[in-house]
Amino acid sequence: MPRRSFPADAALSTWTAPDGWAHRRFERAGAGRGRLLFLGGRADSIEKYLEALDEWHDRGWTVAAFDWRGQGGSGRTGTGDVGHLDDFAVLVRDLAAFWAQWRRDGEPCVVVAHSTGGYLALAALVGGAIDPAALVLVAPMLGLRNPLGAWIGGGVARLIAGRGDLARAAWRERTVARAVRARQRRLTHDPSRFDDERWWYEHCSALRLGPPSWAWIVEAFAATAALRADPRLAAVATPVQLLVADHDRLVDSRAARAVAARLPHGELHRFGRDTAHEILREADPVRNHALALIDAFLDRHAPA
Asked: What pTM did the predictor assign?
């Protein structure tokens, strides 16, 4: 079962950032289609997307991924299981350094990025830190879902964060059945794929990351707002595909749609009520449709 085992021909290794931080890295050689780098979201690990990586590999891609600094198998930046970070720029620098070493001239090199990884990939692209032939953003975090709106929500987050240690958890994670079920509905309509995460945590508890810190929340509001307002979006020459779940309960789908409209070569696809945040881990009808859209986009803009 590709979701719960690593392929025998895949390589797990360590990639070291310029400042010495060790990142867990995954790579699997393909059949000459090109090179595809997958970037997960906050608290994700490589294991959650083995199924998608396997399918892209079947299409001939050399596939790669790494766990972001502070999560998965790449150590921790907070205390205990709190996902603490107060500056996303360090993650953009990690991506830029990895990309510079990983990309190859003479073959198409593309990026597929989910959620927080989507923000980081687009920020790196806008800043000239990466130069993929094409970029796919899946449920990208270009704003946090907040009933108060981005401006008020960010202000409230700063107010609450300032009342204590910024590195403290922003909420308490509940493990009762009702809370777990609610979390599943926020992420995917497929209980089996949702259960893969628990399965991996039971086999390797070190992969688990808990809630973000208040510093992370404040930075997420500020960094995504800055990217949405960046005038360089209008000058991006790279084709960018955005797959957006209109009823996403974690990230702001309206923000993603607004960014898509500003990209000169943006391609937006919207998903309805049958789609939660983790589009590539959704039930088969949704997931297969998303993968087909990605394949067609990459065939057009990054041909072998």
From this structure: 0.97
